[in-house]
Design brief:
The chain is α+β, with helices and mostly antiparallel strands. The chain is built from seven helices and twelve strands. It folds into two domains: 122 residues, Jelly Rolls (Sandwich); 79 residues, Winged helix-like DNA-binding domain superfamily/Winged helix DNA-binding domain (Arc Repressor Mutant, subunit A, Orthogonal Bundle), CATH 1.10.10.10. The protein has a four-stranded antiparallel sheet with strand order 1-8-3-6. The longest helix has 21 residues. Keywords: Activator. InterPro entries: cNMP-bd_dom_sf, RmlC-like_jellyroll, WH_DNA-bd_sf. This is Crp/Fnr family transcriptional regulator.
């Protein structure tokens, strides 16, 4: 898709380059930009003293959060968790592009619909018990291919180290203390294990009747 996008931009007489940003780069809105996330992982968080991680996004997405979040865009930021590769387009250039290639607006709408569904899922955790908040959060990360299988440990998956214990508690909407208590319970059940500061989850944990 990256190659196709660059080809169409060239055909439309528009210039764009693939830019690389390091982890912890913040993209705040409104910035009059369409962001194409080619590779890497980002998360959406609130901008406040008491930040909240809303959801994680793994490439590829075509993002126009300023439009998607309507009048609330200034309350959120996209933060890179890994090194990311992106193409940034102005609203003007994107409008020129979709006149020539309408399928890109369909892709944008699909991306926004997926993010909307993810946000509904995340906000619905509010009234769940700590266990189900943690389970649902890890299931969502696994579906997004952020939690991945361990090649040398069949039946186990690992949580990437860029999601710290504090980040995980924040994302699961539980306190750090509650997260620690739940982890200890899950370790006794052999659903979770921690080795060399690496967080592993057994695949059985992702079954809803666990």
């Amino acid at each position: 898709m990256q190659k196709k996008l660059l080809q169409w931009l060239e055909l439309c007489g528009l210039s764009a380059t693939v830019e690389v940003f390091p982890p912890r780069t913040s993209f705040q809105f409104p910035n009059n930009k369409i962001l194409f996330l080619i590779s890497g992982t980002m998360h959406l968080e609130t901008i406040s003293n008491n930040k909240k991680i809303i959801t994680y996004l793994n490439a590829q997405y075509l993002l126009n959060l300023e439009h998607f979040l309507y009048g609330h865009a200034t309350k959120y930021a996209l933060i890179s968790d890994t090194s990311i590769r992106v193409i940034l387009l102005s609203q003007k250039d994107f409008h020129l592009l979709i006149k020539e290639k309408p399928s890109f607006i369909e892709w944008l709408l699909t991306s926004n619909a997926e993010i909307s569904a993810k946000m509904i899922t995340e906000f619905s955790k509010k009234h769940e018990s700590p266990f189900y908040k943690i389970q649902d959060s890890l299931i969502t990360l696994a579906k997004a291919n952020i939690i991945k299988p361990v090649l040398f440990m069949p039946e186990w998956l690992f949580l990437p180290k860029f999601i710290t214990r504090t980040d995980l508690a924040n994302y699961c909407q539980v306190s750090r203390k509650t997260l620690q208590l739940e982890i200890k319970k899950l370790q006794k059940r052999e659903s979770i294990k921690i080795e060399n500061n690496q967080f592993f989850i057994h695949q059985s944990f992702f079954l809803k009747d666990t």
